[in-house]
Design goal:
The radius of gyration is 15 Å and the shape is globular. Strands 1-2-4-3 form a four-stranded antiparallel β-sheet, with helices on one face. It has one domain (about 1-80). The termini are far apart. The longest helix is centred in the middle third of the chain and has 14 residues, at about 50-60. The protein has two helices and four strands; from the N terminus they run H-E-E-H-E-E. It has about 90 residues and is α+β, with helices and mostly antiparallel strands. The protein has helices spanning about 1-10, 50-60; strands at about 20-25, 30-35, 65-70, 75-80. The mean pLDDT is about 90. This is Histidine kinase. It comes from Draconibacterium orientale.
Length: about 90
């Protein structure tokens, strides 16, 4: 969903492709980061996908999704459930 949102809300061309990176932050967060080159939109985004993801994380993990937006990029940090490793 986060990669789909990045593609949906940003402009990408062959000369200027959209850069999307996905990595772990520590053992408990998945980070999705993309360039910010927003499309011209008739209406502002409702961000319903991010709201739904955040609600699920709060219900299941009791933790919230973190978002950051700068002039150059949009970052989403999704909390992960840690399994009992080594048991």
């Amino acid at each position: 969903m986060l990669v789909e949102n990045a593609i949906k809300h940003n402009v990408a061309t062959r000369k200027e492709p959209l850069l999307i990176t996905i990595h772990f932050e520590g053992m408990d967060k998945l980070v999705v980061r993309n360039d910010l080159r927003q499309r011209m939109q008739l209406a502002a985004s409702s961000k319903i996908g991010l709201k739904n993801l955040n609600e699920r994380c709060k219900l299941i993990l009791n933790r919230e999704v973190e978002t950051q937006e700068t002039a150059d990029e949009f970052i989403v940090k999704v909390p992960l459930k840690l399994n009992d490793l080594g048991k």
